[in-house]
Each structure stands twice: as structure tokens, then as C-alpha cells.
């Protein structure tokens, strides 16, 4: 890890710790007392000037009611991630449907664009934890959500629990393009 990466980690981890401390409604001095770490040290951590040892990170996380992994994962999220259309990863869902990943890295949600050729469909229905939101950019699709057919045209949206069986279809003679947004990430 180079110096710039270390600095970015220190700053983002510090911000995660500060946010968790405030969410726990603790002052810096109270966190210092409960963790047996000095207030100046914790201030340096929160300001991104230093990173705590693994043992101290676990101690801080436990006191804040979270885990070191969660604090590090939150700190790994950049506030802005740009994915250029021509650089996005793609995945063939079937011979007639391509998925473009619109989001990269550690995240709380997925956003994927599907381009579905005429008379194509998801290979099968699926279920998973979380929720999904679909937005049709162009064309028309049909979603079967828990046995109910929902027809969507450009500009239409639908939101549903992903724990019910769901599957998309393009029954038309035109290509359809739509976004699947889900949380937590499922793909």
C-alpha cells in the first residue's frame, strides 16, 4: 500500500469511526474512557492523522457496537465512483441479454443495466434477500413478481421485496433497456 492509499485509508477509517461514535451518542472523552485509549490518540484517528492497530480498532469497534470489518468496509466506500460506459464490466445473462455493472467496489446496493434483445427473458425466476427497484429506460418488459405479471414501459418503475420469486421477460419485437437496483448487492 503506497502513501496515498495509507492516507486515504486513515482519513476514511477516521470518518467511519467518528460517524459510528456520533451514532452511538458518545463524546470523544467517553469513547476514550471506555476503550482505555487516550483522547488525543482517538482525535488523531478520527482526523485521519493515524490509523489504530488491529487490537485498538477491534476495541473501538466493540465499544461502538460494531465490528472492525464494518468500520473498514464503510471506510472503503468512496463518496464518488464513476463508471464510464465504455469501461464498465459486462456479463452475458443469456445469448440475448447483457448486464452492465453500473457500480463497482464495496457498496450497499447494486445497480445494473440490462439490455434485452427481442423475445428474451431471464433464464429463470430467482429469490434473494433484500429489495429491488426496476426502471425501464427504453422498450417494454414484463416482470413476473410472485406470480403477478407487471408490464412496464419506458419511464415506468416497480419496487418489490426480492425474497419473492421474480423474473423479467421482453415479449416484444424491440430491444429493451432497464435498470435493476437491489439492496443488498446480489450480483
Q: Can you lay out the helices and strands and say which pair or pack?
A:
Blueprint: H1 3-23, H2 28-35, H3 39-46, H4 54-63, H5 68-75, E1 90-94, E2 97-101, E3 110-116, E4 120-121, E5 131-138, E6 140-145, E7 148-153, E8 157-161, E9 166-170, E10 176-183
Antiparallel strand pairs: 1-2, 2-3, 3-10, 4-9, 5-8, 5-10, 6-7, 6-9
Main traits of this protein?
187 residues; 434 Repressor (Amino-terminal Domain); Jelly Rolls; four-stranded antiparallel sheet
Q: In terms of structural class, how would the helical and strand content be classed?
A: alpha+beta
Total beta strands: 10
Largest sheet: 6 strands, antiparallel
At the first level of CATH, the class of the largest domain is Mainly Beta
- CATH fold type of the largest domain: Jelly Rolls
**Low-confidence runs of at least 5 consecutive residues:** none
**How do the strands of the widest beta sheet line up side by side?**
1-2-3-10-5-8
GO molecular function, one term: DNA binding
InterPro entries: Cro/C1-type_HTH, Cupin_2, Lambda_DNA-bd_dom_sf, RmlC-like_jellyroll, RmlC_Cupin_sf, TransReg_Diox_bact_type
Keywords: DNA-binding
Domain HTH cro/C1-type: 17-71
Question: Would you kindly provide a written description of the structure presented here, covering whatever features stand out?
Answer:
The longest helix is centred in the first third of the chain and has 21 residues, at 3-23. The two termini are 28 Å apart. This protein has five helices and ten strands; from the N terminus they run αααααββββββββββ. The protein has helices spanning 3-23, 28-35, 39-46, 54-63, 68-75, and strands spanning 90-94, 97-101, 110-116, 120-121, 131-138, 140-145, 148-153, 157-161, 166-170, 176-183. α1 (3-23) packs across α5. The strands form two sheets. Strands 1-2-3-10-5-8 form a six-stranded antiparallel beta sheet, with no helix packed on it. The chain has a four-stranded antiparallel beta sheet with strand order 4-9-6-7, with no helix packed on it. The protein folds into two domains: 3-75, lambda repressor-like DNA-binding domains (434 Repressor (Amino-terminal Domain), Orthogonal Bundle), CATH 1.10.260; 85-183, Jelly Rolls (Sandwich), CATH 2.60.120. The protein is α+β, with helices and mostly antiparallel strands and 187 residues long.
